[in-house]
Amino acid sequence: METRDSLEQEIVQDMEETAAATEETEQAASEPAAEEQPTAEEKLQQQLDELNDRYMRMAAEYDNFRKRVLRERDMVRSEATGKALTALLPIYDNLERALAQETADTEYKKGVEMTARQFDAALDSIGVEIIAPEAGDSFDPTVHNAVMHIEDEALGENTIAECFQKGFRHGDKIIRTAMVKVAN
């Protein structure tokens, strides 16, 4: 019996130790849970941080949208100006040819000159630059179109000998290259 009583005591003692250990574990688990529960101030700060983050992202998206719209608007404006100029350039060329012709009627020549000056002023007002290379200027294939080539020792290599047709530039975009004769 004694063994049975001692066995029962050992079991009871083990159960008490297990219960005490379980109680300590539960207390330890409940204490950090209490620490993990955010206070009202921490909750408000977290909400403020989330709202601030959303606001900053929305502001960045709007800024990107605004920049993209400005780029697209400038591109569309440049394309529209280019197309309109392309349609008007033959008129400019004809005015230049009319100015180059000799005429006995001075009033007629004066009228053509006034029309050409007005056309130049209109081009200038919309930001169009006329590319008018002179004989002796250096040839640049980005703005000049070489349609003839001559050998002339008086002119250097890749030098423009004559300009047949003026070119036009709007901003960074070349509307039409200048048609030239190149020496050497």
What does this structure look like?
- The chain has 184 residues and is of the alpha+beta class.
- It has one domain (52-183): Head domain of nucleotide exchange factor GrpE (Nucleotide Exchange Factor Grpe, Chain A, domain 2, Roll).
- Helices cover 63% and strands 17% of the residues.
- The protein has helices spanning 2-36, 40-100, 106-125, and strands at residues 128-131, 144-150, 159-165, 167-170, 173-176, 178-183.
- Strands 1-4-5 form a three-stranded antiparallel beta sheet.
- Helix 2 (40-100) packs antiparallel against helix 3.
- The longest helix has 61 residues, at 40-100.
- The protein is rod-shaped.
Annotate the secondary structure layout.
Layout: H1 2-36, H2 40-100, H3 106-125, E1 128-131, E2 144-150, E3 159-165, E4 167-170, E5 173-176, E6 178-183
Parallel strand pairs: 2-6
Antiparallel strand pairs: 1-4, 3-6, 4-5
Specify Rg, calculated over alpha carbons. Answer: 44 Å
Helix content: 55-70%
What's the story with the biggest beta sheet? 3 strands, antiparallel
* Helix/strand order: HHHEEEEEE
Q: Report the portion of residues in β strands.
A: 15-25%
- The helix count comes to 3
What CATH architecture do you see?
A: Roll
The total count of strands amounts to: 6
Poorly predicted runs are: none
Query: Quick one: CATH class?
Result: Mainly Beta
